[in-house]
Amino acid sequence: MHLFGPENYQYCPLCGGELEPRLLKAGEPLRLVCKHCGFIFYIDPKLAVISLVPLAGGLVLTRRAINPGYGLWVVPGGFVDVGETLEEAVVRETLEETHLRVEVVRLFNVYSYKNHRTVVAAFLTRHMGGEPAAGDETLETRVFGPEEIPWTEIPFRSTLDALKEYLELLKTGRFPQTQ
C-alpha cells in the first residue's frame, strides 16, 4: 500500500460519490472513477525543488524540524506552490529554511523514482546574501565541506543523488563554482 495509492481514496471530490478502479485504456494503470458522476480522479505526482547552495568551500544543508526525516540533514527545498515558477519556489524555500538569499544559476537535474509520488527538480544556486540560520522548518543550517557531509543522516534519495552528482562534477572540474 502506498501513501498516495488509489486504495487511500474512496469518495469523489466533486460529488461525494463512491470511487472505483477502472481500466480506461489498455496499457495504462487503473484509474479511480466516480460511480455517480464519472469524474476521473488522477493521482498525479507532486513537484518539489531543492537548492544546491555552494558557500565557503562547501554546501549548505539544513537539519529538518518536521517529518518525514525529523532531525536529519537535507539541502534546502520543498513543494512548489500553485502560481509560482520552479525558480521562485527554490528561492523562496531556500530563504525560508536557511535565511539565505539565492539566485538560480541553472537547473541541475530532475529526479523521479518508480512508486514515489514526488518529482524533484534540483537547482544550482548562487548565494546573494544572508547568513546561514535555522528557519521555521529547520533545526539547524550549516555549511558542510565535501568530506564532512553526513551521508548516513540524509533521508531522501533525491538529496543523496543530487549531492553525489554535484560532488562528482566538482571533483572532475566539469562545471565552475558559483561563489
Protein model, in words:
- By secondary structure, the chain is of the alpha+beta class.
- It has two domains: 36 residues, Single Sheet (Ubiquitin Ligase Nedd4, Chain: W), CATH 2.20.70; 127 residues, Nucleoside Triphosphate Pyrophosphohydrolase, CATH 3.90.79.
- Helices cover 16% and strands 34% of the residues.
- The protein contains two helices and eleven strands; from the N terminus they run E-E-E-E-E-E-E-E-H-E-E-E-H.
- A four-stranded mixed β-sheet has the order 8-4-10-9, sandwiched between helices. Strands 5, 6, 7 and 11 form a four-stranded antiparallel β-sheet that branches. Strands 1-2-3 form a three-stranded antiparallel β-sheet, with no helix packed on it.
- The radius of gyration is 19 Å and the shape is elongated.
- It starts with 18 loop residues before the first strand and ends in a 7-residue tail after the last helix.
- The relative contact order is 0.18.
- The mean pLDDT is 93.
